[in-house]
Input
Amino acid sequence: MPKMDVYEAFEAYVMSVLQQCVNFLGEQHSCQKMMVYTGFGAEGVRTFVDFVAQGHLVSPADADGLRAVRDYTAQELMAQVNGDAQHSLLTAVREAEKVPHHIVISYDPSTGRMESDWDYDTTPAPGGLEEDHRLWAITQN
Output
């Protein structure tokens, strides 16, 4: 199990990411769930955001139909998600005895329900964290 400070750092990070997702979608949206996939690998930490609409996973780049407000782009969202907010998480992870391969957070904006899956057992894909996320996303649709 990771030290408690990793949990605390991850919780603070995820709350920041979810707020960025809410800002990205706006108040009027048709998103059923927000999925935050954070992978840990040799290249560091990388977070991917996906939305569930009508039972399908939708990337931020394909989310224009889900949101009424378009104040910023999918690229800007991902730059924020993978930007300065990760610093505390990176510091905590470097100090942890055991680090998960990835953590997936599922958040239902209509109920406020949040679930998490800390995966320690997945073998990393040869293509790195981006390939890991792609393979995970395939299993979600």
